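Issue 218. Parser rejects a valid record. Input:
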Amino acid sequence: MKLFQRLLVAPAALGLMAPLAANADVTPVSNESDLSSEVIGARVDGVEAQLGEIMAGQFSSSTKMSGKAAFITGYVDDDAESDTDGITMEYMYQLNLNTSFTGEDNLYTRLKAGNVSDHFVDKGQGTYLSAGKSGSGSLGVDKLWYQFPVGDSLQVWVGPRIENYYMLASSPSIYKPITKQFALGPNGSAYGSSTSPGFGVAWTQDVEDPSSGRWALSANYTSKDGAKNSDDKGLFGEDSRKFFLTKLEYGTPRWQVSGSMGVKEGGGYDGYFHSSLAKGAKTDMTAYGLRAYWKPETTGSLPSVQLGYDFATIDDAAVGAAEDTAGWMVGLGWKDALVDGNRAGLALGQRMTATGIKGGGTDTSEDNTVWEAYYTFKINDGVSVTPAIFGGNDVESEGSDVTGAVLLTEFRF
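Output the parser choked on:
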């Protein structure tokens, strides 16, 4: 960000220095006393004041910008769609703007664009990439919220474009996924929501020793129809799709255990979360998520471990539809794998499947398994290359198997 500001200011500074030099007093100096420190200091202060006026029209000094670009090259072999397994090359581009007005608050804005399509943004198959972004390539506001502290222990979030898992005292997962189904450890029923208007608060226990255990409690609310100005919709409308989430956690910087409860009203389900027997349901759901993770003291041979299990109950399910669902994952991650700076990951799990069907029956995807494996080569501080493979069986129904591979090149700045 500082480099960006300097590039903006440099031409203006040069333009300012030219007239200053032209108007400078070129009378020969009679003695050294004429160039006293007071005179020099006054002239420098004058130049700095004029430069400050120029910089005031540029980015605020309290705004920091970062970003990344991803080149996505790969393919997916889907048994159900044998004619769509060609190799594609797509992209994602993202800018992050963080602005502080008090030094403790943060206005977060994420601008994002991409042209990822088909398999790599397919929630049903589980092949939706964490780096994926669908669209025509137009850069738009993807996230927008404001975060501020209340006292020493509380953090508050509010914004028109936010998801519930951003409004937590800490993330429930440390595993870095290639496919979104393994995000949040995993992306099951309890966590995850579409970008929506919402607000939340998190309390974190104060401890004298940062390495000791501490408690934290988070609670938030999002409404998928919060921007709709129509009958019974809006932020708190009777027919709005609403999501209440609470998370209680205990742990240290190296390990954590947590439990969460999510209440979804109005059938605001997402394709990541459920068996096909629950898709399209308009009833309410109560979901629970159990998470635990552990990190080794040193990087290298020992991996970090992420465990997760979700289960849910769907109210007033139709006959033949899921009324109970469950899913799980195990994720392993290695920092400094083989070479300092490189990283590896391996995950195995089961997507949310129906464990109970109203009126009896079985879910054809009840024995599904999904997995991924990757290795990240760190070229330098800004560039990395990640080859990855992933797949699953019975992911949407019995016999719907998928396998895929991707080469992900990321540029961070």
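Fixed in the parser; the record now loads. The longest helix spans residues 2-22.
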